[in-house]
Amino acid sequence: MLKAEINELLTQTGPDAPMGELFRHYWLPALLAEELPEPDSPPVRVKILSERLIAFRDSEGRYGLIDEFCAHRGASLWFGNVRECGIRCAYHGWKFDVNGNCLDVPSEPENSNFKSKVRLTSYPLVKVGDILWTYMGDRESQPPLPEFEFCQVPSEQTYTSKRWQESNWLQALEGGIDSSHVSWLHSGGLKNDPLFKGAKGNQYNLNDLRPFFEVAEADGGLFVGARRNAEDGKYYWRITPWVMPAFTMVPPRGDHPVHGHFWVPIDDYNCWVYTFDYHPTRALTKDEVDHMKAGHGVHSRNIPGTYRPEENKDVDYLMDREAQRRGETFSGVRGIAQQDASLQESMGPIVDRTKERLVSSDTGIIKARQKLRKAVEALRDEGVTPPGVDPAHHRIRSAAIVLPQEESFIEACRDALTAKPGVAHVSV
Amino acid sequence: MKPILANSCAHAATAEEARFRITREIGSRAALILALDADAADVVDRVAERPWGAARFFHADGLSTQQLESELEDADVAIMVATADADGEAAAEIARACAERGIMTAGLILGDHLQVAAAVAALRPYARNLMVTTDEDDVAEVLRALRA
Q1: Which pLDDT does position B93 carry in this prediction?
Q2: Å between A420 CA and nearest CA of chain B
Q3: Cα separation of A383 and B32, whole Å?
Q4: Dihedral sign for Cα atoms in the order A24, A27, A32, A33
Q5: Which of A6, A56, A344, B4 is most deeply packed, by most CB within 10 A?
Q6: Quick check: A314 and B114 CB within 8 A?
Q7: Which of B2, B129, B132, B139 is the mutation pick for testing A, counting most A CBs within 10 A?
Q8: Model confidence pLDDT, tens digit, residues A141-200
Q9: Are B75 and B99 in contact (CB under 8 A)?
Q10: What is the value of ipTM here, to two decimals?
């Protein structure tokens, strides 16, 4: 459990909140590159850390992320026209460039310099991999671009989707750290999902529903190891990395692509979940990508034209009691992504952590909260740059491996847990 | 699709409603905290000075088998705290006694990975949940999170 004030500290991410300030030290996914596919694409509304912004791509292909609302009367620029290297407000025609500079105020005399005094807030928007990333902090502290492996490999080796989750970011992230729910909530997926099935490691998972857990600190966050018994007195380890504040990876299965998530606060009651799959050494097959697009693996099946999952709150997640009875799904909800989201949304928009009864298998969550709290306090009180900002912290991997009992996963897997271009991931 | 009534669907999970959830009182967890070596004993002694609910603190080397079994009678969880010099035999004895009674075991190992590797290997078979940390505060943090 957490004290109410610590729960508030970790879950509030608006502009004045200490956790919001922490998030503003990182490059964050703002939208998928597919949302602005070409120059002069229609603008996209983006809400991050409770701040409403508009993303657009000008006639020369430059990306911009600026205040959503026109400096004139506060109308949304989402209605605006993107053309001739700017976005023009649909209300009175004021025009802005990708840096938020006002280019034209049509009601003013042609030789007026009034426009030079008008500027909207703007943030950098940069394409790395399939994602457009933004940095919303102090420009002087802007770190180098992110170097997570999923957005560094060639484009044919990676796929990213996103989905809207109607809960605070922290309870979504905690699901990514909490390995103990997998054998229950996602038990159906190990047998049936085309992006999981067939791996030898699945049998270890299904044969041992009471894994042991080991939590170890990493420079950028944590490694959480779940171990189960393997043959010949060895242990089967699944190792989940967390990079602060909001990046997690799932341990791989066989030669399937490896996947993970980035959990980005929209506001305090909603978050975007960016979900990726990549393979370090080969292109994803058409079948694999088709399965990802269809919502298999850890991706969601979204309502066409939106990033809202079909299994959402308004339709009770398309609960299927028959599938639950048959044992195809444990919760009656289809798909791993929405199995997680449905449970996490059911906890309420911001779960009251003063009422929890944690157990010792929740050690990973306990440690993650402590690291977040300490990082927020160190930044707020002493200006200390938080872990996970340095791109060196991004070059990690998850792993699934069988080890002799006496070996420490953190030592034995030092190489396996480090991203190396062109080297396959360690997987069973 | 069946019609979904507002009061029976997940959409009722508002922030306002969530304030009234889980209204039964939540009691303390009976936790036994056992130091497995001298340095760990110093840490445990410092943590024990803070106010706790149902947590009880011991040095493993000062606890007879009989005392251990007596203390475990009403325990919910046994948390072993160790540093590089952890006593693996003591951990084994505690773990055996816990296993017989269905009591969950956890281990907190304080120190750098390389320095405490032997202690981690000694505790691994006996603690269902292990945390290796350089931060002494984690002992209190875990106890608070568990409502000890």
Answers
A1: 94
A2: 22
A3: 38
A4: positive
A5: A56
A6: no
A7: B129
A8: 999 999 999 999 999 999 999 999 999 999 999 999 998 888 889 888 777 889 988 899
A9: no
A10: 0.90
Q: How crowded is the C-beta side of A170, counted as CA atoms within 13 Å? A: 27
Give the pLDDT band (50/70/90) at residue B9. low
| Residue A263, CA distances (Å) to A174, A216, A370, B98 in order | 10, 21, 18, 38
What pLDDT is attached to residue B14? Answer: 78
Instruction: With cut-offs at 50, 70 and 90, classify the pLDDT of residue B15.
Output: confident
The answer, for B5 touching chain A at a CB cutoff of 8 Å, is no
Nearest residue of B to residue A216, measured between CA atoms: B132
Rounded CA gap, A210 and A54, in Å? 47
Flag if B19 and A405 touch (Cβ within 8 Å).
Answer: no
Dihedral (CA of A129, A173, A215, A211) sign? negative
Contacts of A408 in chain B (CB under 8 A): 113, 117, 120-121
- B/e letters for A172-188, b = 16+ CB within 10 Å, e = fewer, are bbbbbbbbbebbebbbb
Cα A208 to Cα A403: distance, rounded to the nearest angstrom: 16
pLDDT digits over A255-287, tens only?
Answer: 999 999 999 999 999 999 999 999 999 999 999
Any CB–CB contact under 8 A between B6 and chain A? no
- Band the pLDDT of B25: cuts 50, 70, 90: confident
Range in A26-35, A111-120, B1-10 with the lowest mean pLDDT: B1-10
CA distance B82 to chain A (A): 14
Q: Is the pTM of this model over 0.80?
A: yes
Quote the strand ranges of B24-69, DSSP E. Answer: 31-35, 56-59
Q: Chain A: nearest CA to B55, how far in angstroms? A: 14
Percent of chain B's residues with pLDDT above 90: 67
What does the pLDDT average to over B65-78?
94
Residue among B10, B117, B120 whose CB faces A346 most closely: B10
| Percentage above 70 pLDDT, chain A | 100
Specify the 3-state DSSP secondary structure of B29: coil
- State the DSSP string of A336-392: HHHHHHHHHHHT-SS--GGG----GGGHHHHHHHHHHHHHHHHHHHH-PPPTT-SGG
Identify from B52, B80, B128, B139 which residue to disrupt to test chain A contact, counting A C-beta atoms within 10 A and taking the largest count: B128
Question: Does the beta carbon of B133 lie under 8 angstroms from any beta carbon of chain A?
Answer: yes
Distance in angstroms (rounded) separating the CA atoms of residues B108 and B129: 9
Going by C-alpha positions, the residue among A46, A42, A12, A10 that lies closest to residue A28 is A46
Q: Which of A316, A363, A408 sits opposite B142 (nearest CB)?
A: A363
